[in-house]
């Protein structure tokens, strides 16, 4: 089984509130179906989640009742994105089962405290494709908090031990600097803890679920739980399908610390 995260930056326009990139989503759905691989899917929230979540400071917990309406709006927006994604994937021939974190997970102080992984297992055994996503989830200490796609990826990697983990983004992989700002930025083919420590710490556009460093740090930890962990560009046609099939592609390979 291959665990795949479709990042919010690849399936939405992160700069424009609630903008779904249907063309990319349809193509990625076809690539997943064409690979013939058994997958578990996680998708990010992109502009269906981050914009309002930041506006209402949902990542800091609930301290004012006015935040509850913001939380409800984010919950309905990310469900709408999930429905769009589910439709693209079922039309491509995949038997998708949406598993919203608000209904199968609990947070504690911003950490993912519980995820009912057994549910994912059952649907997988039935040859269906479980899919979950970044959401607003009940938090035993903060009332509510944001559950990111990366936290879900980590837990699912621990519980389901996938053969491979793939992060689909809108850039070719991990770069030595922000490729959108620095023309000299180069792709890092193999990413490990040493590489992470050497990267410049830009705090530009940090979203509610943390900086790129937090994300790479998660990936390094996850790399120990699988045979291969890749970060690739889903905006380039064919890359996801090739990676799922085990072919060589342009990507960053993430290496853990234990192996
Ligand atoms: C964010 O999830 C969830 C919300 C803001 C509700 P992610 O952190 O996984 O989303 P992307 O991939 O960065 O868009």
Percentage of residues assigned to helices: 25-40%
Mean pLDDT: 94
Number of domains: 1
Instruction: Supply the number of helical segments.
Output: 10
One letter per element, helices H and strands E, the order comes to EHHEHHEHEEHEEEHEEEEHHEHE
In this structure, how is the largest beta sheet organized? 8 strands, mixed
**What is the first-to-last residue Cα distance?**
20 Å
The low-confidence runs, each spanning 5 or more residues with pLDDT under 50, are none
The CATH topology annotation reads as: Carbamate kinase
Pairing-aware structural class of the strands and helices?
Answer: alpha/beta
- Under the CATH scheme, which architecture would be assigned? 3-Layer(aba) Sandwich
Looking at this structure, what is the CATH superfamily? Acetylglutamate kinase-like
What is the count of β-strands?
Answer: 14
Bound ligands = 3-methylbut-3-enyl trihydrogen diphosphate
CA radius of gyration: 17 Å
| Share in β-strands | 15-25%
Gross morphology is globular
CATH class label: Alpha Beta
Strand order of the largest sheet: 3-6-2-1-9-13-14-12
Description:
- This protein has 259 residues and is α/β, with parallel strands linked by helices.
- The chain has a single domain, classed as Carbamate kinase.
- The protein has helices at 8-11, 22-35, 50-55, 66-91, 101-104, 117-125, 149-160, 193-198, 212-223, 239-244; strands at residues 2-6, 39-43, 96-98, 105-108, 111-115, 129-133, 135-139, 143-147, 164-169, 174-175, 187-188, 190-191, 228-233, 252-254.
- The strands form 4 sheets. It has an 8-stranded mixed beta sheet, with helices on both faces. It has a two-stranded antiparallel sheet with strand order 4-5.
- The two termini are 20 Å apart.
- 3-methylbut-3-enyl trihydrogen diphosphate (IPE) is lined by residues 7-8, 44-46, 49-50, 53, 74, 78, 134-136, 146, 148-150, 207-209.
């Amino acid at each position: 089984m291959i665990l795949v995260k479709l990042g919010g930056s690849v399936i939405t326009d992160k700069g424009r509130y609630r903008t779904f990139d249907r063309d990319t989503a349809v193509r990625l759905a076809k690539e997943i179906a064409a690979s013939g691989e058994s997958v578990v899917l996680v998708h990010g929230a992109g502009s269906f989640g981050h914009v309002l979540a930041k506006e209402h400071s949902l990542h800091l917990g609930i301290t004012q009742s006015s935040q509850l309406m913001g939380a409800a709006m984010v919950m309905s927006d990310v469900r709408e994105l999930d429905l769009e994604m589910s439709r693209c994937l079922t039309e491509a021939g995949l038997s998708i089962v949406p598993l919203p974190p608000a209904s199968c997970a609990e947070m504690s102080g911003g950490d993912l405290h519980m995820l009912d992984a057994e549910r994912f297992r059952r649907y997988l055994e039935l040859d269906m494709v479980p899919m979950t996503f970044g959401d607003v989830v009940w938090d035993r200490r903060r009332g509510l908090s944001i559950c990111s796609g990366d936290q879900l990826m980590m837990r699912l990697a621990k519980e389901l031990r996938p053969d491979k983990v793939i992060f689909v983004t809108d850039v070719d992989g991990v770069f030595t600097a922000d490729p959108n700002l620095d023309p000299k930025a180069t792709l890092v083919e193999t990413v490990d803890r040493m590489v992470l420590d050497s990267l410049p710490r830009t705090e530009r556009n940090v979203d509610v679920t943390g900086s790129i460093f937090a994300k790479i740090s998660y990936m390094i930890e996850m790399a120990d739980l699988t045979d291969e962990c890749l970060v690739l560009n889903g905006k380039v046609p064919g890359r996801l399908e090739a990676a799922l099939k085990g072919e060589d592609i342009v990507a960053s390979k993430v290496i853990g610390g234990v192996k």
